[in-house]
Amino acid sequence: MRCPRCCLSAVRVISVRMSVATVSAGGDKRKEIEEEPGLGLQGNGQPPTKKPRNKKGKSDRYVPPPGKKNPGISFSHQHFGETQYYFESGLRKVFPYYFDFQTYCKGRWVGKTLWEVFSSEFRVEPMKYYIEAAKAGRIRLNEEPAELNTVLKNNDFMRNTVHRHEPPVTAQPLEILTQNQEVVVVDKPASIPVHPCGRFRHNTVIFILGKEHGLTELHTIHRLDRLASGVLMFARTLEVSKKMDQQVRERQVQKEYVCRVQGEFPDDEIICEEPILVISYKVGVCRVDPSGKPCRTLFQKLSYNGKSSVVRCFPYTGRTHQIRVHLQYLGHPIVNDPVYNTEAWGPQRGKRGNVDKTDDELLKALVDVHRLKESLDLLDLPEEDHRCTMEKASTENTGSSTLPLNNQIEGTTDEKSEVTEEQAGRAADGKSVELTKSAGREWEEKPVVVKDTLCGECKLVRKDPSAKDLIMYLHALHYKGLDWEYSSKLPKWAAADWQED
Q1: What is the C-alpha to C-alpha distance for residues 385 and 396, in angstroms, rounded to an integer?
Q2: Cα(204)–Cα(197) distance, integer angstroms
Q3: 43, 33 in Cβ contact below 8 A?
Q4: What contacts 264, CB < 8 A, 6 or more positions away?
């Protein structure tokens, strides 16, 4: 379970009361304390007491043995049908939907109450939310409504059904470059993640290919950064995947990227072999460091328009953010790189590895920069970390644990766009729907956003991202193996005479 938040549609409310007998210090008096299962607050407002144990010190609660994991592909038409797409203002959006987060009890949770686990590890929502969610039966343990005072045991199976809101991505369609019995190759638009991660699930390449093109059971061969674009390959079978993976590991695959960097890049060919160290997997930040992994990238200048240069990049290794980090080190970061071209790295923005901060200070500075710019989504932080970075400010400014991000405006409803009857029918059939605004006419049926009474996100209206927020000038142009070769077109921003608006 990654980050429980909101929960089940049409769940029944559990309002059974229980009496807990407690024995006084002298052992001869008993009194009853009433508390509601899942409510979690005693009369003094403290967390609930743990469930009583038997003489052997073990809870008498039965825990079923763990079920068998499905070794097959995890995404199917059942998953693709969780919600529908719609298109608005050049963006691909999905209707909010209910989704199960599931996990078996982790070793560090054994012996702790659900209250303790939620309060210490799942901070995306305040405890008040989890109290109400448990009251409503939205937090389940071994498929039964859970009480927050339950002591967890090994093999406990936890399920929390949340109301998910995904960020929008570009409405630019996926262009399929090649499709045969062995591979599917697409030209990935910027802003769309390759596979489900963080807050993204349906707005990912894997789900779009499955929902709109019927292409399922694909094996990822390589990945591209969410804000990057270009050639992206998938294998249709496990055998093909292993064959191409072997070529990648043995460095038999030639990769060519193109990017637009800050300033005038040198005319001479440059090879950068600085080692790269990952300093945060959660935020996704790397830097040049002697203790990092060996890397090698070749750079060739293509053009210069007076402000920025178009550069060809040939990475011989495949380290995380390799091209972006090496360009930063050379003093020519990608023009709109939201991580490696910010003031958080100092006056020289990390040129030649000069950073006058510790790793922790650097990460904090990056978050602070994007918080001030109201662009935290560009860091691809997990949802709970968005909340944690704003917790102090929200308490000071609003007295609550929720602070609007990215120009969120507090409210109860979004501005509705009207759709045609045909579009409404397509939405009901699980197909894409295009929303268009029109005045003076009402339709009897139209897709509406379901509001969840416990969902904090439902009470906010987020400002849509701008076009600049959805792209980074880095494009995978060409991939070539022993017996295959795939290319995409140059993006518009790579033209020699291109000028940024």
Answers
A1: 18
A2: 9
A3: yes
A4: 304, 309
| Contact present, 312 and 257 (Cβ < 8 Å) | yes
Q: Could you tell me if 113 and 37 are in contact, meaning their C-beta atoms sit under 8 angstroms apart?
A: no
Top-ranked range on mean pLDDT: pick from 167-181, 389-403, 457-471: 167-181
Round to whole Å and give the CA distance between 474 and 336.
Answer: 9
d(Cα 27, Cα 7) in Å, to the nearest integer?
Answer: 42
Integer Cα distance of 51 and 270 in angstroms: 66
- Residue type, position 161, single letter: T
**Cβ-contact 460, 410 below 8 angstroms:** yes
Q: Which tokens hold the place of 490?
A: 């140059």
Place of tokens 């990390």: 350
C-alpha–C-alpha distance, residues 254 and 482, integer Å:
9
CB under 8 Å to 110, separation ≥6 — which residues? 152, 153, 154
> Is residue 5 pLDDT above 60, yes or no?
no
Average pLDDT over residues 193-205: 92
Least confident of 107-116, 395-404, 457-466: 395-404
Tokens of 12: 């029944």
Among candidates 264, 124, 229, which has minimal Cα distance to 477? 229
DSSP string for 71-132: -S-S--HHHHTT--EEEETTEEEE--EEEEEEEEPPGGGTTSBHHHHHHHH-TTS-HHHHHH
Cα 99 from Cα 5, distance rounded (Å): 10
**Dist CA 154 CA 104 (whole Å):** 8
Taking 3-state DSSP, the helix, strand and coil percentages for the chain, each rounded to the nearest 5, stand at: 20, 25, 55
Residue 158's nearest CA partner among 97, 199, 117 is: 117
CA 282, 400, 368 angle in degrees (round to 5)? 40
Mean pLDDT of 15-34: 34
494 to each of 258, 306, 339, how far by Cα in Å?
7, 14, 21
Cα dihedral 320/322/328/333 (nearest 10): -90
Active site residues: 225
With beta carbons less than 8 A apart as the criterion, state whether 290 and 306 touch.
no
Both structure tokens of 451: 């509001």
**Residue at 45: amino acid letter:** G
Could you identify the residue written with the tokens 């659900």? 114
Q: What is the pLDDT of residues 351-406, one digit of tens each?
A: 999 998 999 999 999 888 877 665 556 666 554 444 333 333 333 333 322 222 22
- Kindly report the three-state secondary structure assignment for every residue of 205-254: HHHHHHHHHCCCCCEECCCCCCCCEEEEEEECCHHHHHHHHHHHHCCCCE
Compute the distance between CA of residue 133 and CA of residue 171 in angstroms, rounded to an integer: 34
230 within 8 A of 477, measured Cβ to Cβ = yes
